[in-house]
């Protein structure tokens, strides 16, 4: 079995396949494990989604992340201060209230907050124009690379071969009864025969699809992040130990504690739909403007470092999980549209189940890419 890409998805799939007792598993990574979008993520882990399947996947993942250190022996710096959406329109508040009701029916503790409750929980926020908040106290953030490292070490321990600096370039297939069937991949380090291959190549999945003759509608979109110098909590009037991952839903500006400092992110009109992940010098002023508007108390923090990375966007901002109808044996787990890190643990489990004929804990057939030709878009609304 060949897994293409050792981000959180590939690493988790490899581990779960090995746990099922599958043999001859090769995890192929063009660079080093975790070096793609996973290492660029803000680390946010939340169960607040609008799509039932996403809620189920996120909930399962969070359970795993809470016990990660015990199970995998790796500290992932999990901070469980919750995740707060700021809502500035009645229409959004109504939609979120319906989603919160769904999340509660699925056993979550998420809830709507009044503006006064938002102000109490997030005193650094200017609540001008805010009409409500949505909050799940069990959400939070953690360190993505640590999760990859935990899965890769555990997978290796179970016999998975991890090929670093090794690029998959071509696919071989044979005519099957109903469709072509994958038989092998060519890599920069040689050919690997395999009747099952999974594309977990993140933002680059569309290119893998092209090489294999499989339509994977995944497009890269640049996003940027800034981490501040350590902050003076008393001077800013904040309590890092309590501060939730806070996101302004209409602008997607967000902030969360990052060690002794703060991590900020937001989109920018200049963000390109391309494989360009260079930092944009004009982005910091955009961020500064949003801080000034929504969190002016944080306006004087000093930037320490930053980076840009790629979201892996699909037409409906929902993931693609399944086996290609054009190429039997070609599985895919990609297109998580900017919320894939938090889904990694559960998606790895589900994809390994699909590949080994086990029943997944949740029905992911609605995330099959065939939806675009049959039922149409399956929109996830709670996107960042
Ligand atoms: C700025 C930013 C902030 C984000 N914040 C969050 C967040 O707070 N929470 C969240 O859940 N998600 C977040 N995300 C999204 C998250 O990073 C991704 O959804 C997730 O990491 C996808 O994981 P992956 O394993 O599918 O992809 P990746 O981590 O990109 O892994 C794919 C791997 O495939 C490899 N690869 C590509 N082509 C080939 C090839 N031909 N041969 C071999 N290997 C190949 C790449 O090198 C890469 O390592 C954020 C993303 C960005 C950019």
UniProtKB/TrEMBL annotation:
Recorded GO CC terms: cytoplasm
Enzyme Commission number(s) from the entry: 1.5.3.1
GO MF annotation terms: sarcosine oxidase activity
Pfam families, alphabetized: DAO
SUPFAM superfamilies: FAD-linked reductases, C-terminal domain, FAD/NAD(P)-binding domain
Oxidoreductase listed as a keyword: yes
Occurrences of domain FAD dependent oxidoreductase (ranges): 2-354
Residue ranges the record marks as coiled coil: none
Keywords: Oxidoreductase
Organism the protein comes from: Brevibacterium aurantiacum
InterPro entries linked to this entry: FAD-dep_OxRdtase, FAD/NAD-bd_sf
Superkingdom of source: Bacteria
Protein name: Sarcosine oxidase subunit beta
Primary enzyme class: oxidoreductase
